[in-house]
Structures are given as structure tokens and as C-alpha cells.
Amino acid sequence: MVNLRGEHIYLRALEPEDLEFIYRIENDTSLWELSDTQTPYSRFLIKQYLENAQQDIFEAKQLRLAINTLENTTIGLIDVFDFDIKNKRAGIGILIENEVNRNQGYGREALKLLVNYCFEVLHLHQVYANISENNIASLKLFETDGFKIIGLKKDWSFDGINYANEYILQRIND
Q1: Which residues contact 140 (CB under 8 A, 6 or more apart)?
Q2: Are 120 and 114 a contacting pair, CB within 8 Å?
Q3: Strand ranges (DSSP E) for 35-144?
Q4: What is the pTM of this model?
Q5: CATH number, domain containing residue 99
Q6: Tell me: the pLDDT tens digits for 3-44?
Q7: Is residue 3 part of a domain?
Q8: Which residues, in sequence order, are bridge partners of residue 89?
Q9: How is residue 147 annotated by DSSP?
């Protein structure tokens, strides 16, 4: 049986009460580079998103879960996106909102729980991640969890001044 609860965190479905948390994350311009966001989101749009978040992953082709500490504090989000049931693959993205919660092992635990869920429950053959070459912490996180760099997309992202390369990492279910 797959557990979405680890030693220090658990993953849970989004709730209407997550509106302010998601609003903060989606409108924090310092995080936009991670998600290719280019415009702010209104509370109205996020509320609509949360109302539709109950859609099954097979219908929505994505799944967003909250990362909570065992003390019930929401500290981040973890996503399955581009869910492709035919080819049994999906992308994974993770974000820990506050810097004080980064490098504490929460992301590593969340990633491990989600990858296990993808392989054991969704029966995926592979998962992948797209990570900027400048995001050393995320590269290390995913590589520690068994992801391998399989390619480099040159000049992939433009921040208004410079282009950045982006790695694609992949983990195949053995």
C-alpha cells in the first residue's frame, strides 16, 4: 500500500482553505521562473481552480498536492503534470515556499513519496523533470532520488535579460 505520509511531512489534496497559500505562491514573482508564469493570478481564478481540483488525474492530466508538515503547516506544492497514460509517463515539479523550510529534507521526502505514488498507484513507467541549470538545489534533489540528466535544452528560458539552459531529468521505474 502506498502511503503519502513520511517521517516529517505528508502530501494531501488541495482544499478551499489553500486559496491564500496558492495565491501567495502564484503571485510571487521570484518564483515565476520555476513555473514559466508570466502574469499574476486573481483570487477568483485560483478559487475556480480549487473548485475544479477534485477532477481525477485521468481527466485533468495533472495533480497538485500540498506538502504539509506533521504539525499541519502547508509548506509547499508538488505537481504531476503532462500525465500521459498511453505512454505511462508524467512530469514532476516541486516548490517549497519559504527558504527556511528548504534544505531541511522536506522536498526530498515529498519527491520520494510522489515518485512512489506515480510508480505504484498510477503504474507509470517513467517520470521526468525540467530544471534550470542555475537551480543547483533542485538538480541535486532530483539526482539524489535517482533521476538522471538525459538532455540539455539550450537557451530554453528567457528572463527578460538573459537566456538560461534547462536540463531534462528522467527516472525510469525498474
Answers
A1: none
A2: no
A3: 63-69, 74-84, 89-96, 126-132
A4: 0.89
A5: 3.40.630.30
A6: 799 999 999 999 989 988 888 888 877 776 666 666 777 888
A7: no
A8: 84, 126
A9: -
